[in-house]
């Protein structure tokens, strides 16, 4: 998998379309979650995109929030799962973050996935768009 990083203004139109389509496929259709994906954060985020040829197979975004880096919208194409691509995208996000503190809101069933990258749970389970989540943090 080849990983690219782009600010919103640098995103090629086809890459933006591919990322929004993948996020809709995973979060809206597969998880049956009606929510406003276009939340304004994309405009200030760095977009981490994982490609196999011309196909976008994984994506995430990184932005600043509350004095720390936040990783969000981590998604892997259903057809490409089970090959470690999600881990590769998270590693690319963390390489971009560097030594800064970082957090994310993980779906509760993905605690171990993010724990493998040094994140630990902070606080209780909470509902985000009808799905149980936990806040997870990684120290600088």
Describe the protein's architecture and organization.
This protein has 140 residues and is of the alpha+beta class. The chain has a domain at 2-98: Gcn5-related N-acetyltransferase (GNAT) (Aminopeptidase, 3-Layer(aba) Sandwich). The protein contains three helices and seven strands; from the N terminus they run E-H-E-E-E-H-E-H-E-E. The chain has a seven-stranded mixed β-sheet with strand order 1-2-3-4-5-7-6. The longest helix is centred in the first third of the chain and has 18 residues, at 13-30. The two termini are 27 Å apart. The mean pLDDT is 95.
Unreliable sequence segments:
none
Mean pLDDT: 95
CATH topology of one domain: Aminopeptidase
Q: What's the CATH class label of one domain?
A: Alpha Beta
Which second-level CATH architecture of one domain applies?
3-Layer(aba) Sandwich
- The total of helices stands at 3
Strand percent estimate: 35-45%
Strand order, largest beta sheet = 1-2-3-4-5-7-6
N-to-C order of helices and strands: EHEEEHEHEE
Instruction: Name the shape in a single word.
Output: globular
Please outline the major beta sheet: 7 strands, mixed
Percentage of residues in helical conformation: 25-40%
What is the rounded Rg? 14 Å
Kindly state the number of beta strands: 7
Keywords:
Aminopeptidase; 3 helices; alpha+beta; 26% helix; 140 residues; seven-stranded mixed beta sheet
Quick recap:
The protein has 140 residues and is of the alpha+beta class. It is built from three helices and seven strands.
């Amino acid at each position: 998998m080849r990983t690219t990083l782009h600010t919103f203004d640098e995103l090629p139109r086809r890459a933006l379309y591919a990322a929004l389509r993948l996020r809709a496929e995973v979060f809206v259709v597969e998880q049956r979650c009606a929510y406003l994906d276009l939340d304004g954060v994309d405009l200030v985020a760095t977009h981490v995109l994982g490609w196999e040829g011309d196909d976008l197979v994984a994506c995430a975004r990184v932005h600043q929030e509350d004095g720390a880096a936040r990783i969000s919208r981590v998604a892997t194409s259903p057809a490409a799962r089970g090959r470690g691509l999600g881990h590769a995208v998270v590693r690319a996000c963390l390489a971009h973050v560097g030594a800064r503190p970082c957090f994310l809101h993980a779906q509760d069933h993905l605690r171990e996935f993010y724990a493998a990258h040094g994140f630990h749970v902070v606080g209780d389970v909470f509902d985000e768009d009808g799905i149980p989540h936990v806040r997870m943090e990684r120290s600088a």
